[in-house]
Design a protein that fits this description.
The protein is of the alpha/beta class. 36% of the residues lie in helices and 21% in strands. Helix 7 packs parallel to helix 8. The structure holds zinc ion (ZN).
């Protein structure tokens, strides 16, 4: 009789707390870590991790996999990069709660970004049950998305809610919090979320706060108005009494503003507001072309290179092509070319825009309270490589090639820091009795293989991925295991 189900031998244990890595073994029984350190007994399966790091499974705090975990529950693009828990419902966008009107809107509104779904649920609790029934390969937790609440209650009304409408949104959020959501997210550059004023968001955030939930935000402005937008998000947390997560923190289009935004955040922390941030390790963003064009008009596209990532119809003609190339081929100014693409493709395209400065990215990555969030869009076509490569890219770039973080510190950001903030219990640290979400990788070879032209490439150097005690990937291959759970807040 073996003593354990799985023993990982002779690895360098990087436990997620930022404690110095140390040589050791790790044993798993059922879905839990049974021992860490020196393991005398035998495992039914033994893995030799000599020369490799053994770390808690990575937590991707910023995903748009809400529909993907049901539609494509293998979520290979996550498992293969060592992600064992996805945070869903970001940027105010998502798939629940759903009404008939929202189901219709979703097809052209959020669907092109999140991927197709019939949304065969109504409440957040029913959606969580559907995720569970789909048996995704990775775990998930979720925000209740404000853009969905607002659409369900008010449609595309560009005004403040009436008292009754606000009460209805609060009730829907309350239902989501009782179902186990981790808080509420907003996307304040996207409609209909952008129509909300601060007071509406404070009232809603108070509902999340009652349950110990957090306020996650794609803030109102990530460009010239970055500092004011950061202040608004902090004030919402402060007034509502909840923690704040600033999504994909960046200084876009204008460079260097993170020099001032990070101290602003640090001062809020000193006042006792629990503000943290996340980042993806690339200088290009990706979003809906229609939304970005609405925000930046042609100037934004004239100022920086942009690539069409995915379209509905003319894939050969547009996907993977620079907007400037397309405009030249068409003999049109950039703005007119974009209008033509949007019209032909029914506003569904997603775009990649090179609008950040590496110095800002490095400054944000290095911040003590910054986590890893891919912001990957599980769309068709040629999605931003962050979908496949975010976690390995951090380890490759910022730990090995252009050192900014120790391995231990990078792993802490991707695990325990993320778990504590997102109300994910007993995960994110390799500790006896905690869940067996584990990644084994080679710090010398780990690398992001995805590129803008060929984004669907699994990373190198991720050797084993274990989710709830089951081996989900080994030596570059995904297994049949689909051991992920829909995690309820604090459960
Ligand atoms: Zn966003």
């Amino acid at each position: 009789m073996p003593d354990y189900d799985l023993v990982i031998r002779n690895g360098r244990i990087v436990d997620g707390t930022a404690a110095p890595g140390r040589a050791g073994d790790l044993a798993v029984r059922g879905d839990r870590i049974a021992a860490v350190g020196s393991v005398p007994g035998r495992g039914a399966r033994e893995i030799d991790a000599q020369g490799s790091a053994v770390a808690p499974g990575f937590i991707d705090v910023h995903t748009h996999d809400d529909a993907a975990v049901v539609r494509d529950p293998r979520v290979d693009f996550k498992i293969m990069q060592g992600v064992t828990t996805d945070v869903l419902g970001n940027c105010g966008a998502g798939v629940a709660p759903a009404s008939d009107a929202f189901r219709t809107y979703y097809r052209t509104g959020m669907g092109p970004i999140l991927g197709e779904s019939d949304l065969p649920w109504s409440t957040t609790a029913e959606y969580f049950a559907a995720v569970e029934a789909a048996h995704p390969a990775c775990n998930a937790v979720a925000y209740v998305p404000h853009g969905v609440l607002r659409y369900v209650v008010m449609g595309m009304e560009k005004r403040a809610p009436t008292d009754a409408e606000l009460r209805r949104m609060c009730d829907l959020l309350d239902e989501g919090m009782r179902a186990g959501a981790i808080g509420m997210s907003t996307g304040l550059v996207y409609v209909p979320g952008a129509y909300a004023r601060t007071d509406e968001l404070v009232e809603l955030a108070k509902v999340a706060a009652r349950y110990g939930g957090i306020y996650g935000s794609h803030i109102r402005n990530e460009s010239g108005g970055l500092l004011e937008a950061v202040e608004e998000a902090i004030s919402i947390g402060e007034r509502a009494g909840c923690g704040v997560q600033l999504s994909h923190h960046k200084s876009a289009g204008v460079f260097g503003l993170t020099e001032r935004s990070l101290p602003l955040i640090a001062r809020a922390r000193e006042r006792g507001v629990d503000v943290t941030i996340d980042v993806y390790p690339y200088t290009a963003s990706s979003s809906s072309l229609a939304a970005m064009f609405r925000l930046g008009r042609e100037q934004a596209f004239e100022a920086a290179p942009a690539i069409i990532a995915s379209v509905k119809y003319n894939k050969e003609r547009y996907e993977g092509k620079y907007v400037s190339e397309i405009a030249a081929d068409l003999g049109l100014p950039i703005g007119d070319a974009i209008r033509k693409i949007l019209e032909e493709e029914e506003n569904t395209p997603s775009v990649i825009m090179f609008i950040m400065d590496e110095a800002d990215v490095r400054r944000v990555v290095a911040d003590d309270h910054c986590m890893a969030g891919s912001d990957g869009l599980p769309s068709e076509g040629k999605p931003h490589p962050r979908l496949y490569g975010t976690m390995p890219a951090i380890l490759q770039k910022y730990v090995r090639d252009e050192p900014l973080l120790t391995l231990e510190e990078a792993v802490r950001k991707m695990t325990s820091l993320a778990a504590a903030k997102h109300r994910i219990k007993d995960r994110g640290v390799l500790r006896e009795g905690w869940y067996a979400d584990i990644v084994v990788f080679d710090p010398e070879t780990v690398a992001d293989a995805a590129t803008y032209q060929e984004p669907r490439q699994y990373p190198r150097g991720i050797e084993y991925v274990v989710v709830n005690g089951q081996v989900a990937a080994e030596r570059g291959r995904q297994t049949a295991a689909r051991a992920g759970c829909m995690l309820r807040r604090g459960q």
